[in-house]
Amino acid sequence: MALLLQRAAKLISRNVLPLTTTSKCRYSVEADPILGDGTEVLVERLEGPQKGITVLGLNRPAAKNSFSRGLVNTFSDILQDIKRDNGSRVVVLRSLTPGIFCAGADLKERKGMTTEETSEFVTQLRGLLISLEQLPMPVIAALDGAALGGGLEMALACDIRTAANNAKMGLVETRLAIIPGAGGTQRLPRILSPALAKELIFTARVFDGAEAKELGLVNHVVQQNEAKDAAYQRALKLAEEILPNGPVGVRMAKLAVDKGMQVDLNTGYSIEEVCYAQVIPTKDRLEGLAAFAEKRKPVYKGE
To answer: Residue 226: pLDDT above 90?
Structure first.
């Protein structure tokens, strides 16, 4: 048992970060084809009753939010900032371009890359989505438009997915004689099943939000509205449900589930024990007990 706890503690220690508040920063100073111009992904921290929700908006409308080197670099810088931000309790990932979430790789840019550059870029993209997946707070993907190839892989890296009923999605890489290379071959079978994931990848099938809900790929499907942001609005409602809860508890619950899914059941129990140990000494836990006794709403600070 002691060995299991030691193993679990090592897994947890790699992912526990200090909860510090960071200020909003500029992610790039000048336009650059590799570094980006800092506008490929826009960050909005909501206020009022939605304070604690951080919205990441994909913003390459002319290229259908496809993954360029600039977008990947800008997004990576943003994630490095957010993962240490105590003020971000829930992250919502959306597109600022109606009708599209993300079209996957920027094939125009990819065409001009050498074999070595292509391999390096795919490795960098995979790393970006791992960073997104490993953010300590819940991440909700709002699919109000097409999520194809790498776009769907990005959504799979999020904890929860909402989709408009007419949003098209699919891992279509085999149409281009390649495979999903940013984690799709690993995440899809874990979310669905190996056999179903293989069918969807082998056939490069494209399906809509309603079919995605039937498959179990998205948590919620909603009828698209005139503003073309129905999935985003649903994601905000989900985020608002998460906000009142203890942020340290939510983060540790995410970590326990994510790490526990990668190991055998007994090690998973040990991971849960280690994660629980992280919340015992917190001020938030005492606040929760006090609020219950005093019959009031708790005020959690992430401490």
So the answer is: yes
